[in-house]
Amino acid sequence: MESLVIPVLILLLAGAAVLLVARAWGRRTAGSGVSTAGAGGAKADSAKGSTTPAGGTTAPGDPVERARAAAAKLTEDQHRRLYALIAQGQAMAAIKLYYEASGEGLRASRDAVGALAAHPQPFRSAAPEAPDPDDDDTPQHFPYRYRAIASKGDVTREVSSNMLNDEIYGRIRTLARSGDTEAAATALTRHSDISMKQAREFIALLDD
Question: For residues 95 and 93, what is the distance between their CA atoms, to the nearest angstrom?
């Protein structure tokens, strides 16, 4: 008897997936025959009882939006394999693939695959995040050479660079005087042509 449990569960899940796709297709077909309420009105969503503005804004829980969100959770390879399984009619394998790829529950995975089958989505790679601008990482070259001088007792050091100005040098001095001498020396090397050793010697005169 126990040996029949797993096959029965698989058949039930496969049937549920097929039913979901059929229902989604039926909703889309039924939606095409619903009349609009005028130029500035709203279209009635017979499946959910909600409304969609005439301007085209999607309603919460819209299957197209659900499909788009589901596709965004897939890598390019997972996206390709999932649609290959859908095309071959392997609903259970597609649900299993999405379940493992997304980490969502079984029911949510079934709904996601149904939405993806009813509303195919192209793969969209995530746009790379733009790096935050950082003067220390991308020094600007100014049309003049800035002279920074540090002294302690009889020792004097000078740095001349067209990548320094009052603002940048002020930040370097603040780092040095707050005790973060290594960060100050690193910033100084990025905004000048001196070595790290020379920068440390210069910063050592500023850390009081």
Answer: 5
Indicate whether 38 belongs to any domain.
no
Residue 32 lies in a domain: no
Residue 140 lies in a domain: no
β pairing state of 51-53 and 146-152: unpaired
DSSP readout, 43-61? EE-TTTS-EEETT-PPPTT
The string of pLDDT tens digits covering residues 102-127 is: 989 999 999 999 999 999 999 887 65
First to last CA, the chain: 83
40, pLDDT greater than 50:
no
Q: Is residue 1 part of a domain?
A: no
Cα–Cα distance measured from residue 172 to residue 182, given in angstroms and rounded to the nearest whole number: 10
User: For the chain, how many structural domains are there in total?
Assistant: 2
